[in-house]
Amino acid sequence: MSQPKATEERRYRLEVAVVILIGLAIAVGAVIAILSLGGSSGDDLQQEFGGLSAGVE
Fold it and tell me: Which of 6, 21, 52, 54 is the most exposed place for a label (fewest CB within 10 A)?
């Protein structure tokens, strides 16, 4: 493999890693925001969906 192609592949991998890290950071931030701001309990969810439960009868 020639040197320019190896450098190009390394740059591509670095860019992909950066995009993945940014996506993970956004996802973690969203989960933290949901848990801290909209932290509803299970009872609220049951009321919202008509009191249906997923339990086995």
Answer: 54
What residues have CB less than 8 Å from 53, skipping those under 6 apart?
A: 46
Q: 28: helix, coil or strand?
A: helix
Q: pLDDT tens, 15-41?
A: 999 999 999 999 999 999 999 987 555
Q: Taking a C-beta distance cutoff of 8 angstroms, is the pair 13, 19 a contact?
A: no
Q: How far apart are CA 36 and CA 40, in angstroms?
A: 9
**Contact between residue 40 and residue 34 where contact means Cβ atoms under 8 Å apart:** no
Q: Which two tokens stand for residue 36?
A: 């801290």
pTM above 0.70, yes or no: no
